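Structure in, sequence out. Go:
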């Protein structure tokens, strides 16, 4: 299977609600690699690397997030593939 990386920018009530931790757990469970990090503007950046099926599952999850979050928008951008070890919280 062909692997790729997609960078997501998640906006809404996504900081201070466990969003990165839940995303990392879901990512590890789903077999993708990458990271989740808070941005200065209150959004969260999520890098997801894996096959198309895995990335689609992560994208569906990011539209919802954990119950404590309120996702208002989700932007995505295909980026150059990079190999990550696991799924980190930055």
């Amino acid at each position: 299977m062909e692997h790729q990386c997609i960078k997501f920018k998640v906006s809404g009530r996504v900081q201070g609600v466990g969003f990165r931790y839940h995303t990392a757990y879901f990512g590890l469970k789903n077999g993708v690699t990458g990271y989740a990090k808070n941005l200065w503007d209150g959004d969260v950046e999520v890098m997801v690397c894996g096959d198309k099926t895995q990335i689609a599952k992560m994208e569906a999850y990011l539209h919802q997030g954990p119950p404590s979050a309120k996702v208002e928008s989700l932007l995505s951008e295909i980026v150059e593939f990079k190999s990550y070890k696991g799924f980190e919280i930055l």
